Amino acid sequence: MNVSSGRDRISNRMHLFSPDRPLSRGRAARAIALALAAAGLSASASGQISVVTAVDLALRNNPRVLGAQDDVRRARAQLAETHDAYIPSASFGSAVGQAYGYLPYPPTLFSGNGGSLIFSVSQHNYILSARAGLQASEMSLLDVQETVAQDAALAFLALDHDRQRTQAIHQQLDDANTLVTISQQRLDAGQDSQIDLTQSRLTAAQLKVAALRADDDLENDRDHLARLMGVPASSLTIDGAFPDAPLPTSPAPGPYANAAIAAAFFSAEAREQQAKGDAKVRFWPTINLVVNYTRYATFTDSFKNLETVYKDPKTGRSLLTANETAFGIQMNLPFFDKSRSDKSRETAAEAARALHDAQNAELDARDGQSKARHAIAELQAQAEVAGLQQQLAQQQLDVLDQQLKIGTGNPNGPQMTPKDEQKARIDERDKYIAVLDAAFQLHQAEVQLMRQTGQLITWLGAGNTPPNAPQAVGPMAVPHP
Q: 453, 320, 414, 473: which is closest to 23 by C-alpha?
């Protein structure tokens, strides 16, 4: 199993897709734009929050992003720790006291110990493992940022959809109440039956329930977006504008489908390097530098007793001095360690499993992206149909208004009444709500596709420099599954 090759470098935004050809959105966009323009529902952007601002605030305040940033700092510290094994460490201490009985080492006034790793064939693999772990945490941070951006973008879309839908339903409710009044007047005049009045009242009651439900959805989605952004819900207003940038239609030539897949491959690389390091422990020496200095407590009885023990038989002078220094190289050569051998096989199997899981996730991600692109094409067609239906309903309403003013021109034909006008208005609002729903579903699919490709933040135009954006550690490439 070979996961790394040193071909490519991961940038801090990791461009996973290059938009080759834009999807055709012209007719659907024109139909929706004409429908919205005909309804006269344009929002002023003054003092309102855009989707870019919403995503930026969510990226800065969301606990998931902050937690992923903590994971990056932890991984960076782990990488530094593997390098620090070669940096000498030093410690000082003291053991002053009185010893009784025979003690070959007298109390010390103070002592110092130092040492460092000089050579270990496994340490290089452990460093590579820590570096791959850092890259995996950086890619996980990018993935979390994309996830939070998706949540914020979908919440923004939902709030804008609720706002326009609530307004349309309340317009329907006003028209339905007017229809009830007209039906009552026609019933009193003997032109309508009690059934017609009951039907009008039922329509008004149903629209009242729909209006209450729409108001609840509006407030719930406003609160949800406010929590994501970390702002008060009472002061949250949005401009309703959403990016209309073209979508990529083909997979990027890069090795990863998105940041989550990259994190999986880097995690597999980390496990593989760990397994390689564990496998090299046997029959390779580990060499360490050892330094020791001791200053004995010469004023203690223990030291004086030992002076009488360690004497030169010829001169009678004590061989024990107040200072003792040791400097040398310590080498350890593992010869037989069954536990380490089994551990190396365990880590090798874990690394192979991690690689296979990453390859499987890559395949699933590519399949999901392909399905999302096809779904968007279908939703674009549905949006176009809904827009045309709303335009037709609006045109029919305009004709009805004109007929009410000047007549149909055919005295023998059925004449249009104010009751017919109110029904046409309610029907036109139904078609308009269908336009809103189709546009909402289309934008949702676009956000989900860009999230799957790992380019949602770039596509939205938000987070040009994401907070604490990770930097690539070094070249690393993973073969395609």
A: 453
Question: Which residue in this structure is represented by tokens 């719930």?
Answer: 220
Q: What would the pLDDT profile of 365-376 be if each residue is shown by its tens digit?
A: 888 888 888 888
Rounded-to-integer distance, Cα 199 and Cα 225, Å:
39
Alpha carbon of 331 to those of 13, 110, 282, 293: distances in Å?
Answer: 45, 27, 13, 20
The rounded radius of gyration (Å) of the Cα atoms in the chain is 38
Taking CA 75 as the corner, what is the angle to CA 10 and CA 262, rounded to the nearest 5 degrees?
Answer: 35
Q: At what angle do helices 418-453 and 338-406 cross, to 10 degrees?
A: 160
Cα–Cα distance measured from residue 109 to residue 297, given in angstroms and rounded to the nearest whole number: 5
| Residue 481 contacts residue 7 (beta carbons within 8 Å) | no
Q: Which of 157-171, 325-339, 419-433 has the highest mean pLDDT?
A: 157-171
205/186 Cα distance (integer angstroms): 20
pLDDT at 52 over 70: yes
Q: Angle 170-446-211 (CA atoms, 0-180°, nearest 5)?
A: 10
What's the whole-model pTM score?
0.74
CA distance 421 to 404: 8
Residue 230: which H helix or E strand, with range?
A: none
Interval 265-273 mean pLDDT: 94
Cβ 97 vs Cβ 107: under 8 Å: yes
- Looking at residue 152, its pLDDT comes to 94
Domains of the chain: 26-84+138-258+369-460 (1.20.1600.10), 86-119+286-332 (no CATH)
